[in-house]
Amino acid sequence: MRARRSLKRRLAAGERLYGALLRLPSETLVEMAGVAGLDYVVIDCEHGPADMTVLQHHLTAAAAQGLDVLVRVGTAEPALALRCLDLGAAGIIHPHIDSAADARRAVAADRYPPLGERGFATYSRAGRFGAVTAVEHLAAAEETLVVAMIETARACAAAPEIVATEGVDAILVGPADLAVDCGFPGKDAIDKLIAATHGVAHDAGRAVMSIVPDTAGARAAEQAGAQLVLYNMAQVLMDAFHTLTAPLAEPAKPDN
Fold first, then answer.
1. 180: number of Cβ within 10 Å
2. Which of 45, 75, 106, 231 is the most exposed place for a label (fewest CB within 10 A)?
3. Which residue windows are coiled coil (predicted)?
């Protein structure tokens, strides 16, 4: 089986990668994302189901299409992160990282010693069920992508320390949670906070992930320097459904 370059290596090479955020369990959507040519999918186990058997099916479907999988876990769930990585996830997205201490705990959950505290196992799916050596498995685990989500004003203020944490590879600012935390100050205020936080990440050499609703949003994210562009598939699909129902709302034309 020929190995492909990891997301981490592709980011380091300056590539811009496109993915789909999936909250609805569907192996078919995973396959379709691969057939369409996307680079990765994000399986959302924070706001979506966290069933390990279903997740394994998604990972298997993704592997068949040469597609990498990132998993968003719930807040402070190192055990879930471990199981996702053992199943073969390429990386973990950790929500609600408010401080450098939070970032260190996220890294500890995802990485093997000495940088982290991940429990070691080679007989998992990630270790090809024992078909690779411990050295090979450790080398592959070095490619794990650690994404810290910044979702509060406190986290934005702590962004320099968060992105400076060894082992953090990328950040994702959650605009919805940030707006709630700030008391809904208005789009301009939130956009300013996000741009400032992205600037901190760029200065530190960390990749930025941006969730977008459509291709116009993707272009804007590209221009702002995002390396990981992530389509919100729930919004994409709902927009598509609304488009399909638009003709139904049009008044019927009279017969001539």
1. 12
2. 75
3. none
pLDDT in tens, 114-129: 999 999 989 999 999 9
Q: Can you read off the two tokens belonging to residue 142?
A: 């070095």
Helix axes 78-86, 100-110, angle to 10 degrees: 40
> Can you tell me which residue has the tokens 């939130």?
190
Report the C-alpha gap between 35 and 52 in whole angstroms.
24
Enter the pTM of the model.
Answer: 0.93
C-alpha to C-alpha distance for 140 and 135, rounded to whole angstroms: 9
Respond yes or no: is residue 47 known to be catalytic.
yes
Choice among 47, 58, 94, 137 that is catalytic? 47
User: What topology does CATH give the domain 7-244?
Assistant: TIM Barrel (3.20.20)
Q: Report long-range pairs for 58-63 (Cβ below 8 Å, ≥24 apart).
A: 58/22, 58/25, 58/27, 58/30, 59/87, 59/88, 59/89, 59/125, 60/27, 61/27, 61/28, 61/30, 61/31, 61/34, 62/30, 62/34, 63/88
11 token code pair: 């980011």
For 61-100, the pLDDT digits (tens) are 999 999 999 999 987 678 899 999 999 999 999 999 999 9
Distance CA 116, CA 107 (A): 6
